[in-house]
Amino acid sequence: MNDQVNLTIDGQEVKVPKGTTILEAASQIGVDVPVICYHPNLTANGLCRICSVDIGARVQVAACVTDCQEGMEVHTQNESVIRGRKILLELLASASDVENGPDILTLINDYDADVSRFAFGERRKSPIYDDNPFYVRDYNQCINCWRCVQVCAEDAQYTFALTFNGRGFSTGIGTFMGDSMPDTTCVFCGLCVSVCPTEALMPIREKMLEDGVDPDDVFRKTRGGMRKVKR
Ligand code: SF4
Ligand code: FES
Fold first, then answer.
1. With a 6 A CB cut-off, is 143 part of the ligand 1 pocket?
2. Contact between 138 and 124 (Cβ < 8 Å)
3. Which terminus of the chain is more solvent-facing, meaning fewer CB atoms within 10 Å of its CB: N or C?
């Protein structure tokens, strides 16, 4: 049984084992496909669609969750793909604050996306949750990439402190029943913070330094994981 598939990506022939995603195959031959929600250590879910590529017959698929097929002709940079990514970035920037997402800002620049194009549209609004001694949650900067939920669940920690909340445009990340973080199953491992592509999740010390708190005070107030003095 042949367990290899042959395809072309941007005209380059490539042979990969069955089950290889287009993203992985492209990476093997040095073709860079942009990603946002994808993280190499987490299960890919195909949520953001920035990695969409053209596979012919006017079909675009998310490269991070689509397996290579025999004879596929993949185009990662044609006009419709580039136009789609540009609009997607413009919509993303209109719905969430991506100012502190360096990889997203790089893509906005690369694709010449106009972040003011949909400025008249609705923006997600959330309170800032400063309810524990380790990190702050500012879901105004959340892009619903799902990475924090996955790393908190089966992909790593098996803690299940985070979930999706809301419906439609108001869908966001939060705790079950909106509990404050210390009242959840969270063990404060910090993995969610480490995989967040924006500053929706931010270590408390970093946040305090950004807010201009004196470094000595930051250390004193956060020593032992507990802020001794109210900020
Ligand atoms: S909080 Fe960060 S990691 Fe979690 S879904 Fe939002 S952007 Fe992604
Ligand atoms: S990177 Fe593939 S859908 Fe987000």
1. yes
2. no
3. N
